[in-house]
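For the sake of transparency, this paper describes our internal protein records without simplification. Because each token names a local backbone shape, the row as a whole describes the fold. One such record is reproduced below, unchanged from the form in which we store it:
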Amino acid sequence: MIRYFFLSISLLLSVSLSSQELTGEQLLEKAISYHDPEDNWSTFKGKMLIEMKNPKGSPRSTVVEMKLPSNYFKTTVKKDNYTIESELDNGECTLKLNGSTSIFPKIKDSLNISCERAKMMKNYYTYLYGLPMKLKDPGTNIDSKVIKKTFKGKEYLVLKAGYDKEVGSDTWYFYFDPKTYAMEVYQFFHDESKNDGEYILLSEMINVNGIKIPKVRKWYYNKGDVFLATDNLRKANSL
């Protein structure tokens, strides 16, 4: 009886230690196995309707179309009385306002319509909706140490990531459920000593092309926990 007791204790300790000894890369692999078990992200072709609401502005809906293998990306943004289409087709940029490519320069400036912004939006959506898989991209530096941290009353395994200078300068933290390895929070700082930047709470996973993508994202400032906006993935389908 005593032998079995000590055997059980040793098994429990080995499970506990294996969890504590996960490296950053190992945690990332487990998280990717949860979110993208069939390795579909690199061939992702999908369409998503995302609605954004914030306390200070009118709602905005964005249809995002991605075909990663052919380097195609398009957003159709509807806000107030405007519909802005920004398309990047293997490097070729097409911009439309309310269906027309003829846009007065002053209107372009006032509505922030440009190919530079289209490229920024491509990076934004492919990064945030491609996490945690995008953490395998070149120029990403994963900290080998996994942190255990309680956030909003729940304990997480936390992965720290930085970037090469030519990629980015922010410091990111990714919070994973310790049992399922689902990504439930991410957080970034421009200057961590100032507690600037934001954190994003993720919930309600939705399956898109075999990939588990968070349906709801709630954005807050790190400083003061001030609520900023909610992004809601209303619809998603493959292309």
